[in-house]
Write a structure and sequence with these properties.
Structural class: alpha/beta
Radius of gyration: 28 Å
Oligomer: single chain
CATH class of the largest domain: Alpha Beta
Number of strands: 30
Number of helices: 20
Shape: globular
Largest sheet: 7 strands, parallel
Bound molecules: adenosine-5'-diphosphate, zinc ion
Low-confidence stretches: 131-140
Mean pLDDT: 88
Strand content: 15-25%
Strand order of the largest sheet: 11-12-10-13-14-9-15
Helix content: 25-40%
Number of domains: 5
């Protein structure tokens, strides 16, 4: 394959990757009318066991594979341009091999959705009807005006009401797109023209992407002179960019240390060199502020890939990146597959975040794959975090990736004081609510009196995590999943957090018919009520999955930013990068919840959550304060997060991982099996365990096989789930055993289904 553009395939046959659960390619004949039109990465329609499937051309071949006497013809070409560049195709092939997943399914997961009806519009000659609708030929951008202020003060000039109103939009920014002025004044085009005549505005025609993200107004970009630590990080990354050596770095910088500024400058260098960059963030919906900073610096030279895009918008963005018209892609984990032309840099912000792991279908870890893609593309990979994952920090300590430290806040602000409140001693607070302890009540009271704002975090949404029958003790459970239902009082419903089951609260107990229930535990809804009752004059808002549908997140954060909201209560959605100057107090209502998970990463997750939430306080000039309520004040994750002491936490954690032989000292492969009946799931898992145990590496004890064991949620969405865990410090041997299991899975285990999860979380 060539390095930049795909060359047409001239051979007789092509190899096609299909979205079927088989790790092999399929050979098809190229009919004469399609000869010379297919390229590696082209999406084609083919017949496969009497169905028509969309697959991807991977390469050409002159003969049929051995033992195959006849090949079906390619039925048609679905898009005029290849979906994948050679660089992306090569990387995805490696990714498929690493995860032992069929290439066709990987490619389907990475490609934009096929335009609807494309299959039906395929003509007999193998081409599409209405070719003007092919994505490769669509107009990706629409033309609009970019309106810029000339910076001349209009004080002496007489302006009309519409002109004044429009000029007001430029008080905190230099340029605006014409469509963002619509709704502001009538006929903005005419008003802009009149202001240009007065010499106050300039405009130029530009191409802009249709994207709701681009509606959010952008503040003026005011880059700071880098601190010494930032400068070292910038210089190091820029030097690596020039070398095209595929180097990787961890930027370990405390919250507010100015990591984003380092990303911005590195990406700017990449753009100046005419190359492209990808920025991966944990949850794009939570980062409009971050996107705003990138737009302020780079204008419209970014494509924001998020789930709110229509198929058309996604396609626009894909094409713009593919053609190199737009150089920077920003998005959540799937932006890893963005077809950025001449990729120079991938940045993974908050690299420790668990949302980078895709947990269904093609299961991949976007941070790990970012390292792989960068290496293959000769691009630099930068991972950034205040609380790096244990694996990444270990890699940096071993010198496998470079370590760049930003040890202090860029603004010179100090890290907030954290007070640990021992809930075993404090019990019920002064207002009668167990989660508003005396110290939290006092601190929040002081904060509000000073006109500041507070954030209180609780890792559980809903009102009460479960309801127990007051007479027989039965807990209300989901009929399809083995979990307790959560009370959501605002909706008057009990909901399952794993499937969409919900029912009215007022249903008699399944065990005895009683209608009296006791609430166990608390959720954000109840916490909000408790804070409201403790501070009746305060405006208390809530941010969690229940309140944040659509643009709900932005609305709530806007109300906090504008000062309308005094206290924001919420789940981990409140812990992510919001930089709000008025917030001086951060409370953690209950630090222990994430420690209770039966997972070797529970302590790490807890430390990360607490350290991140503590970093939200006092980022501007007023010092921050953090109140951390817990039943386990001596737990290292709690104690060290309170001291902002990542190094000590890491030292403790890595020692423990080594002792018990968990990652990064061993690798894991999880085998997930599910079936409609519990016996079937267990038997299939046992069959796979037997397959593994016949392998020499397992007999030797080099690879451990744990299980079959029921999954933490045996029953989920009405199906039964079992697990097998493979564990070994020797990667090669572990992969050998996993490959045997993968082959056994491909042979079929009806009625059960099984999948591999390489490096499970
Ligand atoms: P991080 O991404 O590490 O949490 P940010 O990049 O958001 O940190 O920076 C935190 C704050 O510090 C922001 O308000 C930013 O404008 C400011 N900042 C960044 N770099 C500098 C600098 N060199 N001098 C002064 N302020 C800075
Ligand atoms: Zn009962
Ligand atoms: Zn359920």
């Amino acid at each position: 394959m060539s390095a930049s553009a795909s060359e047409p395939i001239e051979s007789h046959y092509v190899e096609v990757a299909l979205p079927v659960p088989l790790r092999k390619l399929f050979t098809y004949d190229v009919p004469s009318q399609l000869r010379g039109t297919l390229k590696p990465g082209s999406r084609v329609a083919v017949s496969f066991s009497r169905r028509k499937l969309a697959g991807f051309v991977v390469g050409g071949r002159d003969d049929l594979p051995e033992g195959v006497s006849r090949a079906l013809p390619v039925a048609g070409l679905l898009e005029s341009e290849p979906v994948f560049t050679p660089e992306l195709l090569r990387f995805l092939d490696q990714a498929a091999k690493y995860y032992m997943h069929p290439l066709g399914e990987v490619l389907r997961a990475a490609a934009p959705a096929l335009p609807s009806g494309a299959m039906r519009r395929l003509r007999k000659d193998g081409f599409l009807d209405a070719t003007e609708n092919l994505p490769g030929q669509r107009v990706a951008h629409h033309r609009t005006w970019k309106v810029t202020t000339t910076g001349k003060a209009p004080s002496s000039m007489r302006l009309g009401a519409r002109q004044k109103k429009l000029m007001d939009r430029f008080t905190d920014r230099d340029s605006i797109l014409l469509e963002d002025l619509r709704g502001e004044v009538d006929d903005p085009r005419a008003v802009v023209r009149s202001l240009k005549e007065k010499g106050l505005l300039e405009f130029e025609e530009v191409e802009a992407i249709r994207d709701p993200f681009f509606r959010i107004p952008v503040a003026r970009d005011e880059p700071h002179a880098p601190t010494a630590a930032q400068q070292i990080a910038i210089d190091t990354v820029v030097e690596a960019l020039a070398k095209r050596s595929g180097q990787a770095f961890l930027i370990h910088g405390v919250t507010g240390s100015g990591k984003t500024e380092v990303y911005l400058r590195a990406i700017d260098e990449v753009r100046k060199a005419g190359r492209g960059a990808i920025l991966l963030v944990p949850e794009i919906a939570l980062t409009p502020q971050l996107v705003g900073r990138f737009r302020a610096r780079f204008g419209d030279d970014i494509a924001v890939l998020h789930s709110g895009l229509t198929a058309r918008q996604r396609d626009d963005a894909w094409q713009a990146l593919h053609k190199g018209r737009v150089q920077v892609a920003i998005g959540a984990r799937s932006a890893l597959f963005a077809p950025v032309a001449d990729l120079g840099l991938i940045v993974v912000d908050e690299e420790h975040d668990p949302s980078f792991k895709q947990d269904e279908g093609f299961r991949y870890q976007a941070r790990d794959m970012a390292l792989l893609r960068a290496r293959y593309a000769g691009a630099v990979c930068v991972l950034g975090s205040a609380t790096p994952s244990v694996e990444t920090y270990h890699r940096a300590n071993q010198g496998l990736i470079g370590l760049l430290s930003l040890p202090t806040r860029a603004t010179g602000a100090t890290m907030p004081e954290v007070e640990i409140v021992d809930l075993r001693r404090h019990r019920i607070g002064p207002t009668g609510h167990p989660l508003v302890s005396g110290p939290l009540f006092a601190a929040l009271g002081r904060c509000l009196e000073n006109g500041h704002q507070g954030i209180i975090f609780l890792n559980r949404r809903g009102f009460a995590p479960s309801l127990r029958c007051a007479s027989c003790g039965v807990v209300a459970e989901c009929p399809a999943c083995s979990v307790a239902l959560t009370e959501h009082r605002g909706q008057g419903a009990l909901r399952c957090h794993y499937c969409d089951f919900h029912r009215a609260v007022a249903v008699p107990c399944a065990g005895c018919g009683s209608t009296e229930f006791k609430r166990l535990g608390v959720g954000t809804e109840q916490l909000q009520k408790a804070v409201e009752e403790s501070f009746p004059k305060a405006c208390v808002a809530r941010l969690d999955r229940d309140t944040a549908s659509g643009d709900g997140v932005e609305r709530v954060l806007d109300r906090l930013r504008s000062g309308e909201v005094d206290v924001l209560v919420g789940t981990q959605m409140v812990t992510k990068g919001h930089d709000i100057a008025g917030v001086t107090l951060v409370g953690v209502a209950l630090a222990d919840q994430s420690l209770a998970f039966p997972d070797f990463r529970a302590a790490e997750r807890t430390f990360q959550l607490l350290a991140q939430v503590a970093g939200r306080a006092g980022r501007a000039d007023s010092p921050g304060e953090v109140i951390l309520q817990t039943y386990q004040p001596d737990h290292p994750a709690v104690r060290l997060a309170a001291q902002h002491d990542y190094e000590s936490f890491y030292a403790e954690e890595i020692r423990e991982r080594q002792e018990v032989g968990y990652p990064p000292f061993a690798r894991l492969v999880s085998v997930r099996v599910h079936a409609g009946a519990e016996d079937d799931a267990r038997d299939a898992t046992q069959a796979l365990a037997d397959t593994a145990r016949r392998h020499q590496a397992v007999k030797d004890g080099a690879v451990q096989v744990l299980g079959p064991a029921p999954a933490p949620l045996v029953r989920l969405r009405g199906r039964y789930h079992y697990r097998l865990l493979l564990k070994s410090p020797q990667r090669k041997l572990l992969r050998n055993v996993a490959a045997h299991i993968a082959a056994r899975i491909e042979a079929g285990l009806p009625p059960a289904h099984a999948t591999l999860d390489i490096d499970p979380l």
